[in-house]
Amino acid sequence: DSGVTQTPKHLITATGQRVTLRCSPRSGDLSVYWYQQSLDQGLQFLIHYYNGEERAKGNILERFSAQQFPDLHSELNLSSLELGDSALYFCASSVDPIPPGGLAGGHQETQYFGPGTRLLVL
Amino acid sequence: ELKVEQNPLFLSMQEGKNYTIYCNYSTTSDRLYWYRQDPGKSLESLFVLLSNGAVKQEGRLMASLDTKARLSTLHITAAVHDLSATYFCAVEGNTGNQFYFGTGTSLTVIP
Q1: Interchain proximity B92–A106, CB inside 8 Å
Q2: Tens digit of pLDDT for each residue in B52-61?
Q3: Is the dihedral of CA A70, A35, B91, B16 positive or negative?
Q4: Closest Cβ–Cβ partner in A2, A45, A110 for B99
Q5: Average of pLDDT values for B86-93?
Q6: N or C: which terminus of chain A carries fewer CB neighbours within 10 A?
Q7: What is each CA distance from A58 to A64, B6, B55, in whole angstroms?
Q8: Partners of A19 in the beta sheet?
Q9: Residue pLDDT, tens place only, A19-39
Q10: From the CA of B109, how many Å to the nearest CA of chain A?
């Protein structure tokens, strides 16, 4: 058990709908990352939040959005769903401490992954 | 966009043998990560390589990074069945802190 929780585990919905995926990081971890894994696109980095602020954005569609709340949990919102959005969505967390003098220069810490949310769009 | 290639895509090896998985990437990066994924499961971080020449070892797995050649290797020593999984490398871009994943190497260790 990584200590990262994701809900729901499975989600079945229809095209055009909107869903929200939730991630709770390990206690003390400030960073949350979201990833998408599908058969045709493989593993893709979506977005990274650090202590409530967006730090990096990857191949995240405009129909998708995310946020990290003051208690550090994060939500990934997927709207106007299409068949191709069917995938496994993982979140991961890490400590990513800020070194003296400024923001962390990169992802130096090990990431701990949640069990994932399997989304099926029909 | 940074491209990451892994080879081989599929690897079937006998227990006790050694083998290497390769991860090539297209543009400069100083940070590379290796992950393991068991069938139907989530990802597990294996190694974080942060500089040229970095070498890390955990059990029968050893990872290295050559940033000048834009190459990382994951070496498996005396493979055992428990190492059967899919292994991914991921490269962090030098701008924007994004991650770019390889296609994965599906490893099957045969008794």
Answers
A1: yes
A2: 888 999 999 9
A3: positive
A4: A45
A5: 93
A6: N
A7: 12, 20, 28
A8: A78
A9: 999 999 999 899 999 999 999
A10: 23
